[in-house]
């Protein structure tokens, strides 16, 4: 399986999500990306899983998921096969 992203670090500074991906640090206001994370307790925020492919981050205690592509604003074009959208 090809690794989509190398997620190296996930943490919080108040209501800011801090993520280090491929050596680059990024920060995101929780109010802009996830109401569940915004209202989660520090314990709920601290329990997360990074997908083996590096595609996303999952917080099982609040059942929330964020894709790394979505956070970084990486667009995806639909796949076209045999004249139909896949």
Model description:
- This protein is of the alpha+beta class and 86 residues long.
- The protein has a single domain (7-74), classed as Uncharacterised protein PF10387, DUF2442 (NE0471 N-terminal domain-like, 2-Layer Sandwich).
- The protein has helices spanning 30-33, 35-39, 42-46, 68-72, and strands at 7-13, 16-21, 24-29, 49-50, 56-59, 64-67, 80-81, 84-85.
- The longest helix is centred in the middle third of the chain and has 5 residues, at 35-39.
- The chain starts with 6 loop residues before the first strand and ends with a strand.
From the structure above, extract its key features.
single chain; 22% helix; 86 residues; 3-stranded antiparallel sheet; NE0471 N-terminal domain-like; alpha+beta; globular
Second CATH tier, the architecture: 2-Layer Sandwich
In whole angstroms, the N-to-C terminal distance is: 20 Å
Mean pLDDT: 90
Q: What is the CATH C level class, in words?
A: Alpha Beta
The amount of beta strand, in percent, is 35-45%
At the fourth level of CATH, the homologous superfamily is Uncharacterised protein PF10387, DUF2442
Low-confidence stretches: none
The backbone outline, from C-alpha atoms, is globular
CATH topology: NE0471 N-terminal domain-like
Determine the structural class based on helices, strands and strand pairing.
Answer: alpha+beta
Question: What value does the Rg take, in angstroms?
Answer: 15 Å
Largest sheet: 3 strands, antiparallel
In DSSP terms (H or I, runs of 4 or more residues), the helix count works out at: 4
Give the strand tally.
8
Range of helix content:
10-25%
